[in-house]
Specification:
- By secondary structure, this protein is an alpha/beta fold.
- It has two domains: 82 residues, no CATH class; 256 residues, Rossmann fold (3-Layer(aba) Sandwich), CATH 3.40.50.
- It contains 13 helices and eight strands.
- The chain has an eight-stranded parallel beta sheet, sandwiched between helices.
- The protein is globular, with a radius of gyration of 20 Å.
- The protein starts with a helix and ends with a helix.
- 45% of the residues are buried.
- The structure holds NADP nicotinamide-adenine-dinucleotide phosphate and 2-acetamido-2-deoxy-beta-D-glucopyranose (NAG) (3 copies).
- Keywords: Oxidoreductase, Signal.
């Protein structure tokens, strides 16, 4: 263990300090040490996997292909997907349409975008597919809207197969936050918690009983690396994703014996509009595409990796993590106080940058 610690620290020493995790300008600076350390990284990850098989560091495959097994796992299933209007959710919808699922319920607030995604899915589905696609708009920040989503979804699923329920719930809809703790009103914490966590819990409570009755089902919850490691300017977001992590771990222990699988997926950066649509501490829209997000992984590739990993029964895994995010997660285990110092530095750096930007 101590030799691993040494490797991690030495490795990090070769990287410029602010690049520790998720830093916009770090990408190019990272390339050289990254190449040098690929061997070490593989060693580190291999050892890590031996120690903790639950937390796998799956890389995003460079192909969008779904495995044969994935097709089988999603075939003939009734699936409820939130956040389907764009980004990762739209890519997941496309991949699900490829799998010959029987029912795909697409949810989000933007009905026009959802209609477009439905059209794309119809085109993707094979002609022999009996896929039925329904749109149920919902505002995840509104409890009664979420209630309506689950009621409508269950009734659509029952109409389609009198004996079947929702087989797979994918909690993907979410919002990020961008503001320092001192600038964040408690109502923003509550809103982010509602959208990213409570809405998903509410949906799970509605659909799990029939999964237990039929002794099969899956909850696939899109969390974030921020659900494993909190970083500055993300108090609300990190809290909501940590809630997802703890909730799902506890839930899994209760549902496994009923053959209901609980999957937690923790992505790094994906090239979506997540930073554009992030909320600031005063409720205003952040409205900027961060360089990290712009340089993120392709959402189609991430969607394929997620579905292949779920089909191979991985419960808790990371996708699309940058090298520095992986190192940071390692440091959290091996040298937590060192990591704390790096995060403090990072906050100071971002604070100065922000001041320069606004003055
Ligand atoms: N992009 C990344 O780098 C990244 C990294 C880690 C985790 N994730 C997670 O991946 C998931 C998908 O995000 P994305 O990257 O695809 O971002 P995105 O492009 O901003 O998409 C977010 C989706 O969530 C929906 N949504 C947001 N607020 C909602 C609300 N109040 N009610 C209903 N739906 C709402 C949006 O639909 P409407 O606007 O139509 O409502 C949209 O379909 C999120 O849970 C996010 O936390 C993303
Ligand atoms: C898709 O599912 C339908 C109904 O279950 C079946 O008739 C059809 O052959 C399937 N198509 C493919 C490509 O698997
Ligand atoms: C929920 O559905 C009920 C009954 O259809 C409707 O009256 C109510 O306005 C809906 N609530 C929301 C927030 O959509
Ligand atoms: C992001 O939003 C812009 C408009 O604001 C849209 O044109 C673009 O397609 C969106 N990108 C994704 C990946 O959803």
């Amino acid at each position: 263990m101590s030799s691993l610690l040494l490797i991690a620290v030495l490795l990090l020493g070769t990287l410029p300090s602010p690049c520790l995790a998720f830093q916009p300008s770090s990408t190019s600076l990272l390339v050289a040490p990254l190449r040098q350390s690929i061997y070490l990284q593989q060693r580190l990850l291999a050892t890590h996997q031996k120690h903790n098989s639950k937390l796998s560091m799956g890389a995003v495959s460079s192909s969008n292909a779904l495995s044969e097994d994935t097709n089988l796992q999603f075939q003939d299933k009734s699936i409820l997907l939130t956040g389907a209007s764009r980004g990762l959710g739209r890519s997941l919808a496309h991949k699900l349409a490829e799998c010959n699922a029987s029912l795909l319920i697409l949810s989000g607030r933007d009905e026009v975008a959802l209609q477009q995604v439905k059209k794309e899915c119809t085109e993707i589905a094979s002609s022999s597919s009996s896929l039925k696609i329904e749109i149920v708009p919902c505002d995840l920040s509104d409890k009664s809207s979420v209630d309506n989503l689950s009621t409508k979804s269950l009734s659509i699923a029952q109409q389609l197969h009198t004996t079947k329920a929702i087989d797979i719930l994918i909690n993907n809809g979410g919002i990020s936050s961008r503001s320092s703790f001192l600038d964040t009103d408690i109502s923003i914490d509550e809103k982010v918690m509602q959208v990213n966590f409570f809405s998903g819990a509410q949906l799970a409570k509605a659909v799990v009983p029939s999964m237990v009755d039929q002794s099969s089902g899956r909850i696939i919850w899109i969390s974030s690396i921020q659900g494993k490691l909190g970083t500055p300017y993300r108090t609300s977001y990190a809290a909501s994703k940590f809630a997802v992590q703890g909730y799902c771990e506890a839930l899994r222990s209760e549902l496994t014996s009923s053959n209901v699988h609980v999957h937690i997926i923790s992505p790094g950066y994906i090239r979506t509009n997540l930073s554009q649509s992030a909320i600031m501490g005063d409720g205003k829209n952040y409205g900027q595409t961060d360089v990290t997000t712009a340089n993120g992984k392709d959402p189609d590739e991430v969607a394929a990796t997620i579905m292949n990993s779920v089909a191979s029964e991985q419960n808790d895994f990371i996708v699309a993590a940058t090298f520095s995010a992986k190192v940071a997660l390692w440091l959290k285990v091996l040298a937590p106080s060192f990591l704390d110092k790096m995060l403090v530095k990072r906050f100071e750096k971002q604070r100065i940058e922000l001041k320069e930007k606004t003055s």
